[in-house]
Structure formats: structure tokens, C-alpha cells
Amino acid sequence: MATVISGKGGAVDGSNTVRDWSVEIENAVATYHASGGSSGQGAIAGNNDWSGQYNAYGYLPDVLPGEAFEFKGSVDGSVGVVSAASGALCNEVVINFPIEEGGIINHTVSFEANGALTPGAAVATDAIVPDAYSAKDATVALLLQQTPFTETDETDVRSITITITSTNPAYRSSSTSGETKRVAGNLSATVSYSVYVEDGDPSNLPSEGDIKQLKVKCAEADNQPATGFTNDEWWDFKWMIYSGTSGIECSPESGDIIGATCNWTMKGFADVAGTQTKGFINKPLQTPAAFWP
Is 35 domain-assigned? Predict the structure, then answer.
């Protein structure tokens, strides 16, 4: 007799503090109508493709956009789905800091096929005791691109979202055996954060076209994993350009505090003292810290 099970024993191999995982598997079925078919549709199997994501706690995902990895998603530690050794290619990570709610820093890792996905045996090990970090100490610091640098912490930040994306082109050929494969593509990044507007005056917000080095502080020293680090940890984006403000709202009826969302996008190159200079994206808790270039 068949049995059903819950997801309580699920895991993603190599990742800890995972909240959930999912995959979508599809075949590009080719359909046709032809003479002799009595107006009925015919169909034949086409190329396979798949994609997936997992949600976890923490401010540094195990894989980042453009990186290939072996995905093993298990439902009970022994069965599930598994890709080839480099058969999954990360295309996006989103990292959330819910400061206002005093919530837990969390992230989503999205990935796409770089070869076949096999259902069945999927041994996934997650023996690490879960550890989570509060978003209450997170903040945003802005640095002018000129030298020497001047750093200013944003005030009354309510939430922060980091999004890093790699547009990974897909291909199918006589060498892929009906499977979809991908290669790492171009990289982009955005940072948005919601704030309470100082004095309710929108002129206190950044101006469109501003260019800054932007740092997201992830945690205070007493809110870090037990890895020997004692300093504050940052995601560091050099540089970003201000792409605009959204959601400035004033409601006499509700009397809510006036807020807004500040939006920044990656600007990998900027003029520093008259010289066009390449920036970087640095990740926390890593030596070397550089993610890009």
C-alpha cells in the first residue's frame, strides 16, 4: 500500500537552515496537425528543462548567481531529485532583512537546469544545528565615490532587500541529448530599502542619479555565527546608482508615519578623481571577500 509523507525530513545537500525547496520539471512537447489525422492533434516529446529554488535563513547563500553546483533536494534524506555534479546553475539570490518586524534574515536561491535532473535516490546531509540571525541590527551605509570616502548611515531603515541576478543563456544541441544546458551570463544587482522619511521631507532622500558605494550591515558581533569573527559583517557594493524612490505615501485618514522605498542598481564602473574605475561586490564572512569581478 502506498504511503504519503510530510516534508519535515526535507533537506538540500550542502545547505543548512533550509526552510523549503521546490523544482519545476517540463518537457517542450511539440504538437502538430496533419492530413490523415481527422483534425486531431498529434504530439511528440521535445527537449527537457527544469528549474528550482530553495529558501533558507542567513545572509550568505551557499551558492551565488553564475555558480554551478550539484543540487540534491531530498524529502527524507534518501529520496528526492538530484542533478549532475555541475548540473544546476544559480540565476538569482534574494536576501531579505525584515528589520521592522524584528524578523530573521533569510534568502532565496533560484537555479536552472544545466543538464538532466534525476528523480529517485537523493541522499542529502544536513547535520548542522540550525542557527538564525535577527535582522534588527541590520542597516545601510552610503559612501561617496570621491576620495577620501565619506560614510553616512541611513536612518530609520525598516527593511532591506538585496537581489543579485545572472542571466544564464540556455542552449540545446546535438550534444545535449534532449536536455537543456546553460552557461553563466551577465551579472546585475539591486538593493532596495524602505525607510521612514526624515521630517516627512522627500528632499532628505537620495537624489535620482546619485552614485554611492553602498554597504549592508548584516549583524552585530554578538549576532554572528561562531566562526571566530568579531567585527561587523557587510555586503559591500561599489558602486550603485540611485534609480528612484517608490511608495512615498501620506495618509491623513490613517495618520501613518510617512515612509518610502529607496532603490539602487549596480554601477560597476565610476569616475574617481578623474579616472574611470572598476568597482566590486564583496560578500561577508569570506576570505577573499570578492564575489565580483
Answer: no
